[in-house]
Amino acid sequence: MKTFNYHSAKDVKEASKLSSSNSAYLAGGMTTIPSIKLGLASYRDVIDIKGIKSLSGIKVSGKSVKIGATTKHVEVAKSKDVKKAIPSLSALAEGIGDPQVRNRGTIGGSIANNDPSADYPSACIALNAVIHTNSRKIEAEKFFKGMFETALKSGEIIEAIEFSIPQKSNYQKYPNPASRYAIVGVYVAKHKSAVNVAVTGAKSCVYNDKDLSKALSNNFSSSSVDAVRISSSEMNSDVHASAEYRANMVKVFAKKAVEAC
Amino acid sequence: MKKISVEVNGKKVTKEIQDHTILSVFIRENLNLTGTHVGCDTSQCGACVVHVDGKSIKSCTALAADVDGSKITTIEGIAKNGNMHPMQEAFKKLHGLQCGFCTPGMVMSAIDLLQNNKKPSDTEIREWLEGNICRCTGYQNIVAAVKEAASKM
Fold this sequence. Notes:
The structure holds 2 protein chains of 2 kinds. By secondary structure, chain A is α+β, with helices and mostly antiparallel strands. Chain A is built from 12 helices and 14 strands. Chain B is built from 5 helices and 5 strands, in the order E-E-H-E-E-E-H-H-H-H. The N and C termini of chain B lie far apart (about 40 Å). The radius of gyration of chain B is 15 Å and the shape is globular. Chain B has helices at about 25-30, 85-95, 105-115, 120-130, 140-150, and strands at about 1-10, 10-15, 50, 55-60, 70-75.
């Protein structure tokens, strides 16, 4: 394993000061540590931000659920406030990986990594999330740029993710039996103004399926999904599932999610 | 190099380590506690599960440096006064192991389950053990052992 210098930052300012073009922030480390071990990534400095108190915690107000970047999946899954405000979000957190991953992995780490099969990015898109960083606020639709790519600039730190509380919502996924990442995951959220249908696992990056969102905004019924055609042309195809299978599962899960709302 | 102080199985330990030392390596090679096994080394199999501040984690996917100041419990730390932990007793009694390689992780993970859920159903046990793989396919008896331990604890 490649060597690096480990730093534990006391606050966001210190973390940001330590960062360089050859550093990585470490939260739960559920992806960063395996990536370093496997030689997929190497850094001169690893800056641990777990100890920064202001980055952790859950605040629920009338309209939104704001979750600190280093809040662990288990904390989101167990939070009574989250369960009450957005039950689908606590269910999503409960379905990530396994108990040991949920005891370490963080929401900020998940979205900063933007794995094409990760669960949380779909929640961000469906729930009109705003990503608060140490320098600005970014809308979820502008945050997820591509495979493992986000709008974050070098050294920028996610501080919190603020989700809008929808009228109804549900998340459905088919987990990879080994990793529990979504082979396909669909998050449906009905807001007062419109419906969002966010899809993860199917393409190289999470996306809002505009056709499904439009159809369900017009008529929030599972039958609305039938008329929408989902193209398999940009879908992932691998040993687990073909592009055609994934395209079909987007519809299946969109219907299931609407019915479960 | 970095100096870390942790409490391992009730004993305070201070060691000088390299910054990039993985927790499982620290436990096995610096502390010589080889009951914690490393199977896949990619956080899939769960043979390396230990408790850090009471919660189960995969020690192959944590840095020793980032648990500085924590309390660590390994499989060697759960027997009391020469008596096996009820979870160990149950695994022994119900043959919840074959080759035994996954067992330390299974036991540590199952103890954490009972901390969260005193009377888990078969389904809840199976869901909780999602991150622990047994390649002797001994799950039936493992689930039975966890149920037995739950009834005794």
